[in-house]
Amino acid sequence: SYTFTADTTVTPVWEEIRTEPLRPKEESYYISVPRSDGGEVIAGTHHAERGERVSLGVYPDSGYELDSLTVSDARGRTISLRDLDGGHYSFTMPSSRVTVEAEFVRIPENTGNPGNPADDDIYNQPFTGLGTPGISGIVLNPSPMPFTDVHTTDWFYNNVDYVWKHYLMSGVSDTQFAPNVTTSRAMIWTVLARMNNVRTDVNPGATWYERGMLWAMERGITDGSNAMDDITREQLAVMLWRAAGSPGGTADLSRFGDAASVSGYARTAVRWAVANGILNGSDGMLNPQGTATRAQVAAMVARYGDRIA
User: Fold this and answer.
1) How far is Cα 305 from Cα 105, in angstroms, rounded to an integer?
2) How far apart are CA 300 and CA 234, in angstroms?
């Protein structure tokens, strides 16, 4: 506002202000993947926008193979699939929800090479991982740990022995576990998938971690980003927490001097991990932003396997 003390002529000058219209947000549509007998199909995402490419990974159970795979829209119309080889497919998302249906059939017996039993189809080999809760008949690795850099006096010895026996982690070489080396996010996806009876060694896809990544994405454990980045201690706690069903966290973190450095998104997961003895501090610190070494990962995974899974 203005105040004038004498007669004044005021001539307004108006300027047109142009604004860009808000771009409407593209609607996303649901991708339904019903369970199938004899195998599993994992979509790269639960929702996609019209025109987005959606990836599918097809994983037959032992002794089965894919017979048919179809994707249909809400009106029952078939969506064309692109075969990417190696049990992977993709399709373009229409402007409606879609349903992915797969049928698996048994592989005829004696499909291996009778002249060389060692070359038999890997699908016919027994799974020896930890397995999902409630699955019986778990087979532990009978071979002793071969790692010369893991000693009985090390604090992580029993943890590394656990992940070795349960086929969850191997070494960086035949004789080295590398306990002080950092761990990638992709390795955690792979470990968690193995804990849940997923054969990550069969048709792994374009990358060694693809099966673990797709499994973890399907279950909301990760968004699949930054696969080769080092995982932090709080990120590991979050993934384990999500794998456990995102339960409540009750631990009081105030006893740790760096509790304030726990990210907001990770606070409940860290409380849960501390309450269940999965994440322990050192010298009164949690070090949530610190990268997790292979020894620390082995410890948290072993504790999770014993107390939660």
Assistant:
1) 33
2) 11
Q: Quick check: 295 and 236 in contact, CB under 8 A? A: no
Give the sign of the dihedral formed by CA 65, CA 68, CA 71, CA 72: negative
**SS3 track for 36-72:** ECCEEEEECCCEEECCCEEEEEEEECCCEEEEEEEEE
Integer Cα distance of 56 and 130 in angstroms = 25
Conformational region of residue 224, where left means phi above 0, alpha means psi within -120 to 50, and beta covers everything else: left
Under 8 Å between Cβ of 214 and 206: no
Are 194 and 138 within 8 A, CB to CB? no
Sheet holding 39-43, edge to edge: 39-43, 53-60, 88-92, 82-85
pLDDT at 37: 87
pTM of the model: 0.61
Does residue 137 contact residue 276 with C-beta atoms inside 8 Å? no
CA distance 297 to 191: 10
- CA distances to 88, 156, 191, 241, 305 from 300, rounded to whole Å, are 32, 10, 12, 11, 9
The token duo for 49 is: 């926008």
Cα–Cα distance for residue pair 254/75, rounded to 1 Å: 55
Q: What is the pLDDT of residues 92-148, one digit of tens each?
A: 999 999 999 999 888 876 444 333 333 333 333 334 444 433 333 456 788 889 999
